[in-house]
Amino acid sequence: MALTIGDKIPEILGKDQDGKELTANDFAGKKLVLYFYPKDNTPGCTAEACSFRDNFGELRKSGYQVLGISIDNEKSHQKFIEKQQLPFPLIADTDKRLVGLFGVWGEKTLAGRKYMGTFRTTFLINESGIIERIITPKEIKTKEHAKQILNLK
């Protein structure tokens, strides 16, 4: 059963690009943008990450922390962060625990080929670690995603 609105996020979130374990408690008292994306250094994922980077100050002013998650490994995340100068951590969900827990892993189709992958999905978490909003793949505009969140008032 996938996590949904009203559910508390798990305490252990995973390891970031530097191998540091991040927990829900690290973000206690802060709102959190928890965004799942398919792959480092791909066009849509880069556009989305850069949207968060370019609007990071505004997101912080609105009380948000940003945390990206993909199944790529720590080394891939390090390169992505360096190349795009991302000011927020990325979790390496290599065991696919989080994508499974949040229900964002499943069958996708590209050019008629079926494969398993991550559905681009964003979870807005309140100061108590409760999911308040889920932004689905169909709703997300990668180049404007941060602004979409900032305009949700």
Summarize the structure.
The chain has a single domain (12-150), classed as 3-Layer(aba) Sandwich (Glutaredoxin), CATH 3.40.30.10. The protein is built from five helices and nine strands; from the N terminus they run E-E-E-H-H-E-H-E-H-E-E-E-E-H.
Describe the SSE topology.
Layout: E1 12-15, E2 21-23, E3 31-36, H1 43-54, H2 56-61, E4 64-70, H3 74-84, E5 90-92, H4 97-101, E6 105-110, E7 113-118, E8 121-125, E9 131-135, H5 145-150
Parallel strand pairs: 3-4, 4-5
Antiparallel strand pairs: 1-2, 3-8, 6-7, 8-9
Provide structural commentary.
By secondary structure, this protein is of the alpha/beta class. It has one domain: Glutaredoxin (3-Layer(aba) Sandwich). Helices cover 26% and strands 29% of the residues. It is built from five helices and nine strands. The strands form three sheets. It has a five-stranded mixed beta sheet with strand order 5-4-3-8-9. A two-stranded antiparallel sheet has the order 1-2. Strands 6-7 form a two-stranded antiparallel ribbon. A hairpin with a 5-residue loop joins β8 and β9. The chain is globular. The model has no long low-confidence stretch (mean pLDDT 96).
Structural class: alpha/beta
Residues in helix, %:
25-40%
User: Got a strand count?
Assistant: 9
Count of domain modules:
1
Rounded mean pLDDT is: 96
Q: What is the CATH homologous superfamily assignment?
A: Glutaredoxin
The CATH class name reads Alpha Beta
Q: What's the order of the H and E elements? A: EEEHHEHEHEEEEH
Q: Give the CATH architecture.
A: 3-Layer(aba) Sandwich
Q: How can the largest sheet be summarized?
A: 5 strands, mixed
- Tell me, what's the shape? globular
Strand order of the largest sheet: 5-4-3-8-9
For the record, give the distance between the C-alpha atoms at the N and C termini, rounded to a whole number.
29 Å
Strand content: 25-35%
Detail the poorly predicted runs: none
| Rg (C-alpha, Å) | 14 Å
